[in-house]
Amino acid sequence: MNVRRRRISGIAVTAATALGLGTLSACSSDSSAAGNTDKFDVVASFYPMEYLAEQIGGDHVNVTTLTEPGQEPHDLELSAKQTARMGEADAVLYLKSLQPAVDEAIAQSDVKTKIDAASLTKLEDHGNVEHDHDHGGEEHADEHAEEEHSEGGEHALDPHVWLDPVKYAEIAQGVAESFEKADPDHADDYRKNAEALAKKLSGLDTAYKDGLKNTATKVFFTNHAAFGYLAERYGLTQEAINGLDPESEPSPARIKELQQEAKADGVTTVFYETLVSDKTAKTLAKDAGLKTDVLDPLEGITDKSKGEDYVGVMEANLKALETALGAK
Prior knowledge:
Helix content is 41%, strand content 11%. The protein is α/β, with parallel strands linked by helices. Strand 6, helix 8 (228-233) and strand 7 (237-240) form a beta-alpha-beta unit.
């Protein structure tokens, strides 16, 4: 994917070490806790990986995350201390290509078990997402894709795979197998926990299928192109204002194009997200006479999130989509 150019300062390391790492809870945003407990220590790169580690590991794991709640993860910068502490963990769980600094640190780390979620399912190329919507059918879309590849080289694979419950479940299964191999004493529990998580994700998939199978429109507008997998899974079309960069400024031509598409496709809502500015989305909505709502890409959980965890936020996303698309 095209890495966003915003710069985010490194995570401040807390004073937890001075207070005694044994008192930390099973989930912590401070990676300094890694490698200092009696449990299976897992460093997760950002929230979707953290959630998998917690759900599958249960009481047997100590999960720490490199990305603090409320911090947009793509351009995360790591401190030297975080990088050093990563090597003390039993395992690191990450999604290659999403956070370049994390990829680099893991490549240089001596941690024994490195679990790349991107290798546990098939990532896809969703192309030039700003201009993929086409009224001319699948054949024209295929020609457009070939043209894009011939003119500008290959697109990067879309990393936002966790927003598809089916693919997320595939990743979860792979994570469980890695945990079982790395910590065989608790393999049975990891397997059972993974089965319980699979049921949750299967239920979520069913809810999305049922909720979105009959809608007035199949097109939705988003602040940035995080929902390609979700759209593809449930027969929808995502139109992103800013492509892969939620804080870039769309051209006047792009705004006009979206206004025209809103009328043509019966679009009612422009979605924005919790971790970036809603200014552009609200401006487009005002100019086009549309509503606004939140569609959360689940890159982090904050007090603004419409749910306490992955499943809760995904359920809120479904309700928002049902309303915006006119589910019947």
